[in-house]
C-alpha cells in the first residue's frame, strides 16, 4: 500500500529527472551543432570555433542564460563580422543582469543585438 505508493512516486520522480537531463543534453548538443554550422559557414576555422565554443559553454554555465541563446547570439554576431563576438555577447548578458534582467530578457536583448549587427 503506502510503501508501494512511495516507491512508485520515487521511481516516477527519478525517471522524470532523467528524462529532463536527457532532454537538456539533446538541446545542448543541438545548440552546439548549430553553433558549429554557423561559424563554419561564416568561414571560421576549427581553432577559432573551438575557442569560442569553450567561452560560450563557460558563460552559459556561469550564468542563468541557456546555452542555446548564448551560442546562437555569439555565432550570429561572428557571422555578421563583429570582431569580439564572445565579448559582446557576455557584455550584453552582464548589462542585462545589472539592469535586473533575467534569462527571458536576455533572449530579447540578444535578438536586438543580432538584428542590429546584421543591419
Automatic annotation (TrEMBL):
Lineage of the species this protein comes from: Bacteria, Bacillati, Bacillota, Bacilli, Lactobacillales
Pfam entry (one): TMP_3
Originating species: Ligilactobacillus salivarius
Name listed for the protein in its UniProt record: Phage tail tape measure protein
Tape measure protein N-terminal domain segment(s): 24-118
Amino acid at each position: 500500500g503506502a510503501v508501494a505508493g512511495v516507491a512508485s512516486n520515487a521511481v516516477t520522480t527519478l525517471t522524470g529527472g532523467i528524462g529532463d537531463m536527457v532532454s537538456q543534453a539533446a538541446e545542448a548538443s543541438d545548440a552546439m551543432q548549430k553553433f558549429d554550422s554557423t561559424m563554419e559557414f561564416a568561414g571560421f576555422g576549427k581553432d577559432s570555433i573551438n575557442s569560442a565554443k569553450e567561452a560560450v559553454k563557460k558563460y552559459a554555465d556561469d550564468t542563468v542564460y541557456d546555452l542555446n541563446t548564448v551560442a546562437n547570439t555569439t555565432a550570429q554576431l561572428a557571422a555578421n563580422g563583429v570582431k569580439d563576438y564572445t565579448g559582446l555577447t557576455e557584455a550584453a548578458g552582464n548589462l542585462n543582469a545589472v539592469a535586473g534582467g533575467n534569462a527571458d530578457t536576455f533572449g530579447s536583448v540578444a535578438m536586438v543585438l543580432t538584428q542590429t549587427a546584421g543591419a
